[in-house]
Amino acid sequence: MKAYDVRGLYPEQLDDRLAELFGAAFVEVTEAEAIVIGHDMRPSSPGLAASFARGAVSRGADATIIGLCSTDQLYFASGDMGLPGAMFTASHNPAQYNGIKLCRAGAAPVGQDTGLGEIRAKVEAWLSTQPASPSPSSPSPTPGTITERDTLSEYAAYLLSLVDLSEIRPLKVVVDAGNGMGGHTVPTVFAGLPLDLVPMYFELDGTFPNHEANPLDPKNLVDLQARVVAEGADLGLAFDGDADRCFVVDERGRGVSPSAITALVAARELAKHPGGTIIHNLITSWSVPEVVKEHGGTAVRTRVGHSFIKQEMARTGAVFGGEHSAHYYFREFWNADTGMLAALHVLAALGGQPGPLSDLVASYDRYAGSGEINSTVDDQMARTAAVREAFATREGVTTDDLDGLTVTAKDWWFNLRPSNTEPLLRLNVEARDTPLMTKIRDEALTLIRTPPTP
């Protein structure tokens, strides 16, 4: 179990029986009278969603199953219907995985400290006391009901109501859905817009026959980049498996950093909400707080992860938040993340002026970044301590521990975070120019990857 969702191999770690237990525990912890459930296109997802619904109704809650949907479509349903929700997806993970993303009514986050730990404890207790039982004891004397509902058109209409696309020029856009849920949502959301849509891998297929549905890995953008150039398109969009994240490629086939998209959307949101607050995680570029300040907003730095971002959104009343991983959060979308709404903002910004996307985003992409570099290590704490010791004593260098180790100097910074689920350290480096970034990156990687002397 991760800090903000349930994830595991199907059926070895997550099966139908476990999903039923999670459904029962979810209702008990949230005290919900009704919930909404959605799922992605993985072969195991419909069965897991149905099992979760059985567990929920056994505790007296009514369950509305919205069927195939993107994760942000589930958040829309939770917000629009005012119900806690469960989304069955493993996002960008390979085909053998599945998982559950949970939220309270209004798409409010359920993380380790906001209900997920309590849900997990209930499930573990039931498993230990009733190892052979298909469901927990003490069902409600009045079981709930299960109904089905399609929310796709309502979801699309709501998103389109938040962005003015009425005056955009015609654009040619290539969309790589990665055989994920973008193939389900994009045709409906983009219908009626002046777009020449070139679809790639729109067939829903949870075995991901073309490439992993993880656009954060550059190798999974290669097909899109080549197609954008070949088509002479204005831009490309890539969605991950559950289509809650969106990555952007410019007309030259070059990836646009999520930090630049965060800055672009932040500027647009601040035009709508002058003086507003913008949330950004500590791995986004220095460009983000700079642009926010230049547009009269207040930037708030926070930990990585959607539950942390959503908590800060609620606490500060922020109008928008962005992460390096291409998760984008909107106050007008119940503080939840939606890559589709971010994509609509990019289309509106590009289509509202005559120049190419590369020129439009240039002012938002000011520094040289390494991207996220993963290193397998034997001892995360020891390797982090070695990096701290080597850098912290340098003149003008500061450190903080908001999320892993962040080391900051006048012309560069880096963050080193341990993975919660694997023996990895994740390094992100940014500097004023590429040679300096390369130098700091290589110094840090040498310390991370050199085994300690016995």
UniProtKB/TrEMBL annotation:
One of its GO terms (molecular function) is metal ion binding. It comes from the Bacteria. Gene3D superfamilies: Alpha-D-Glucose-1,6-Bisphosphate, subunit A, domain 3 (3.40.120.10), Alpha-D-phosphohexomutase, C-terminal domain (3.30.310.50). Keywords: Isomerase, Magnesium, Metal-binding, Phosphoprotein. Residues 133-142 have a biased composition (Pro residues). Residues 372-444 form the Alpha-D-phosphohexomutase C-terminal domain. Coiled coil: none annotated. Its cofactor is Mg(2+). It holds the Pfam family PGM_PMM_III. Residues 128-147 are annotated as: Disordered. This is Phosphomannomutase/phosphoglucomutase. It comes from Streptomyces liangshanensis. The lineage of its organism: Bacteria, Bacillati, Actinomycetota, Actinomycetes, Kitasatosporales.
